[in-house]
Every structure is written in structure tokens, then in C-alpha cells.
Amino acid sequence: MNSPVIQLLVLAGIAIFLILRLRSVLGTREGFEKPRVQSSQAPSRRSAPDLEVIDGGPDPDITDYVDADSESASALAAMKSADRSFNVREFVRGARGAYEMILTGFENGDLSEIKPFLSDDVYEAFAGVIESREKSNLSVDFNFIGISETTLVDADYDATSKNAEVSVRFVSESTSAVYDNGGDLIEGSPTDIKKQRDVWTFGRTMGTGDPNWFLVATGE
């Protein structure tokens, strides 16, 4: 066997060896290989379930607070129709803040900042209590701790006058101590926490452009 033939056989053997090595390292692929989809990519819209939107169904902004078939639900729906900016959830949230601010101002004998949120009747009633307290030389040490419960208990709407009223029950915790002119404690305690229950009614004329609600009545 001559030298050129031997050289060809050696080269062929080397080529076969290299091919086998590459196949063992890289493996083999057949057909078209789909690219991998990262887990952070959004799933195909085709895989998402179809959601049916039913017009005229219950409004969760109302049914989260009152029964769907109650008179209060009908009143709240009428309020929302009369004033598209009205939202029950936002109203309840605002009522919580108003309750703390108004109660604290009344107990501390300062109505100047809360007067814009009071109806004339409520303001006169609050001012009368504070005036009587001052005449008796009494002072109050009041500390508001927090609200543990807020419940919408009633709603009423007059379509003719567009006057709306919503009543909310609050359960709050606070400390209150009343002192006489000499500094002696005559009622309450500066450290004992008491639980207080109130039902406040807020009123407003819907659709006027004024979003403010006023405290129109208080009770328990």
C-alpha cells in the first residue's frame, strides 16, 4: 500500500473520530425546535377564560355595605345616578376621618375647624354643650385612640329635592377625663380606655358640584 493511500485512511479515521465526539457532546436535533418561553412572559390570551360582563348587575360598591334588595341599596344607587362622582367606598372612608376630627374637636371645645362640616342644628347643639361646660369651669382631657367598626346602617334619597342622607355606625375607643376648676377629676379617667358607639347621619344635596357632606344628626 503506497503512502498517499495510507495518508487518506488516516485522515478519514480522524474525521470519523471528530464527528462521533461532536455528536456525544451536542446531541442530535430532529425537526423544528420551538424557542423556550420565559416564565415572566404573559400567557397567551387564548388560554384565558372568557369573562361575561352583565349589564345592570349588582354594584359591588353598594352591595359591599348593604343588602342588594334593601331600600338603602336603592337609595345609594339613585345617589350614584344623580351624581356620577359619588362613590360609597370613598364616602365611608371620608366618614371615618370626619368622625375622628369632629369628635376630637367637640371634646376639646374647639369648633372652629369643624364648623364647615356641621349643619346649623348640630353646630348649635355642640356649641351649647361647650358653652355650658365653660360656664361650669370644666375642662376635658380627651385622647382619641381609634375606630374599631364602621357600618353603613341606612341611606335615604329624595329624588325631587336631591337631598341625600347616609347614616353610619361607629365604634371607637378613647380616653376622657373631666376636671373641675381646681384640677380635681370629677368624671372619667385619663388612662382607662372606653368604648363608644355612635350613629351619625351625614347629608348632602347631590349633583350640585359641592362634594362635601355635613353632619346633620347624631345618636346611638
What would you note in describing this structure?
- This protein has 220 residues and is an alpha+beta fold.
- It has one domain: Roll (Nuclear Transport Factor 2, Chain: A).
- Helix content is 35%, strand content 29%.
- It has 5 helices and 4 strands.
- The protein has helices at 3-26, 60-63, 71-82, 88-107, 120-135, and strands at residues 139-158, 163-179, 185-205, 214-219.
- Strands 1-2-3-4 form a 4-stranded antiparallel beta sheet.
- The longest helix has 24 residues, at 3-26.
- It is elongated.
- The model is unreliable at 15-54 (pLDDT under 50).
Q: Kindly give the count of domains.
A: 1
Number of helices: 5
* Structural class computed from helices and strand pairing: alpha+beta
- Gross morphology: elongated
In short:
This protein is of the alpha+beta class. It is 35% helix and 29% strand.
Features:
220 residues, alpha+beta, Nuclear Transport Factor 2, Chain: A, 5 helices, 4 strands, 35% helix
Topology:
Layout: H1 3-26, H2 60-63, H3 71-82, H4 88-107, H5 120-135, E1 139-158, E2 163-179, E3 185-205, E4 214-219
Antiparallel strand pairs: 1-2, 2-3, 3-4
